[in-house]
Structure formats: C-alpha cells, structure tokens
Write the structure tokens for this entry.
Amino acid sequence: MIRIGLVGCGHWGPNYLRNFSGIDDVHMAAVCDQRKGALERIYKQYRDVETCSDFQDLIRRKDIDGVVIATPAQSHYDLARRTLEAGKHVLVEKPLALSVKECLSLHELALSHKLTLMVGHTFLYNPAIRKMKAYLDSGAIGKIYYLQATRTHLGLIRDDVNTVWDLAPHDIAIFSYLLGQTPRKVSAVGVSHLKAGLEDVAFVNLFFDDNVLGHIHISWVDANKSRQVAVIGSKARILFDDLNPLEKIRIYEKGVSLDRGYDSFGEFQLLLRDGDIISPKIEPEEPLRNLCLEFVQCIRTGERPLADGLNGAQGVETMCAIQESIRMNGKPIELGIPV
Ligand SMILES: NC(=O)c1ccc[n+]([C@@H]2O[C@H](COP(=O)([O-])OP(=O)(O)OC[C@H]3O[C@@H](n4cnc5c(N)ncnc54)[C@H](O)[C@@H]3O)[C@@H](O)[C@H]2O)c1
C-alpha cells in the first residue's frame, strides 16, 4: 500500500484526491489546506480522509510515503524541499519552482535521498498528445516545420504569477516532449491590461534545433476559449484540440515540400500533397490518473518519471527566459541547461 498526502485543496488539488482514491493499493492518508472552508468541502465528499491545516503536521506523519503539492507556484520550492528533507517522495504541480537554481537543488536533493521528484506536466500523460508524438516519430508528417499553441480564455486570473507562468508551462512541456528537444532560444512580448506588472497576454516564440519554430499565444483576456496545439510538417498537419471531446486529434494529410529532382543544377519543383483528414481513436484515459499511476510506480520501483525534476527545471529555465525577454521588449534570450 502506498500512502499519499496532499497539500492544497483549491481548484486543482481535489482532482488529485479523486484520482489517487481510485487507484488500487493506494491510500489517501491526509489532506492539508490553510483554508478551513476548503477542508470542509473535502470532508463532505471524503469522510475517511484525515485533514489538517498545518503542512508540518502532514510531513511529520510516519504513515505517508509521498506528498502532492497543489498550492500556488510561489510556495512550491519551500514545500517540496521540506517534503524531501522529511524523507518523502514528492509530486509538485507546475511550475516546479520559480528559478532554475531552486529546481536543480530539488532535483539534487531527490537524487541524494533516493526519492521520487515529479512535476505535474499533465499533458505528457495525455493519450492524445502521446498519439501525436507516435505520429511524429513515425515520420508520417514529414519534416517538422513549426508548432503553434493557443491557450486563451477569460481568466482564471491569478495573483501570484502572470499568464506566462500559469499557462505556458503546459505548451513548453508539450513542444519539448513532441520534438524530443528543449528550445535553444526564446523571444517574447507580453502586456498587462488588468493588474499592473502581471502580464495577462503574451506571444512567445521558441527556437529549436533543425530550423523548427514554436509559437505560443496565451491570454487571460480573450473571450474565445482555445486549447489547441498544431504541428505543421512537410507531409501533414496534426491538430490537438483539447476542447473537442470527439476528435481530440485530426491529421490533415496535406503539405508542401521541395522536390529537388535528379539533375545537379539545383532544379526543383514544389510538391503539394493533398490527402485525407483522419481522426484517430484515442484511449479514454484521464491524463491526471496516468500521471498519478506513474508517481506510484516510481515510488515502488525507484524509476525516474518522465516528468522528473530535470524536466521541471528545463521548463522553468524556458519560463525565466520568456520573462526576461518580455522585460526587454522581445530581446532573444539563449538557453540550455547543461544535463
Ligand atoms: N496541471 C494542470 O492542468 C493544472 C491546472 C490547474 C492548476 N494547476 C496548478 O495547481 C496549483 C494550484 O492551483 P489552484 O488553481 O488549485 O490554486 P488555488 O489557489 O485554487 O488553491 C491553492 C490552495 O492551496 C492552499 N495553500 C496554499 N499554501 C498552503 C500551505 N502552505 N499549506 C496549506 N495549504 C496551502 C490554499 O489555501 C488554496 O486552497 C498551481 O501550481 C497551478 O499551476 C495545474
């Protein structure tokens, strides 16, 4: 039996409670939140889960193997460090922390204590994103030209971080996972319309090896709710639409490339491909459940999760560079964590 504790029962935390409660041989031992109202709501649904309001009481418990941290971003580093120092495995919501230094120190701490450190990069556990990666890896879309993500809606507006730190970690994790590489350079612009100093809209450019570009449009002030990621290649375009319950992925077998022909004098012609639009079957699995299952598996076996501390650190390095580029009105910022 693996025993899990949870800190943070606001909007997102209860999803962990529901998922871990539904996994065999896992016991939700206790949940912690500073807000009494949050704990009362939990108690109404889960009568047998113990609750507490002091995080220290949670990590002091001997009957907890792993702790999930679903609190606001600013508290992640401190709570994760204390959890690891208490000898417990930890799953931290994104972003892992607010600086690369903090992320790497958590990564080192987990390694030295032989504990699992995992980040809530939920989309890496999404069956539709995994299917998308399988298509890319098979070569079915040809050479990848660029990726485009749109993550817009009205809010949910946060006080502690801007829209970049709130929303972009998802797309950065998705892009890096799909391409099997992290960005080499970023350039971004963003502005705040609602709360001074907290950007609520941003346009982010990411530069990858092999001439691949990525673009992310994030916004808290757009009435159009969109959760899309498109990959455009020489043979096809793949679209992931998280808001489409029936067709999460569509593959447009259409593309353009250059045919250089047989002669050596550089003659070429444009090759336009036209084909079907395919909507493959996607397994109806909840991504967060997959993530929780991997956390439990890693606690049991000592394996490293896909979304490990280094994966979290790479995401945070990109976030910091985006923030810096916004501050400098779009100046390109180079990056590359030595792994
Ligand atoms: N992976 C995803 O798709 C996804 C989706 C939404 C949110 N998130 C992440 O989940 C985290 C939480 O987001 P949210 O929307 O639930 O926030 P929230 O503000 O709604 O809830 C946070 C809760 O944590 C509690 N809390 C804060 N510090 C605490 C402490 N030291 N001890 C005990 N309780 C404490 C607060 O009282 C609050 O109830 C964020 O990091 C966010 O980025 C991830």
Summary: Residues 309-327 form the longest helix (19 residues).
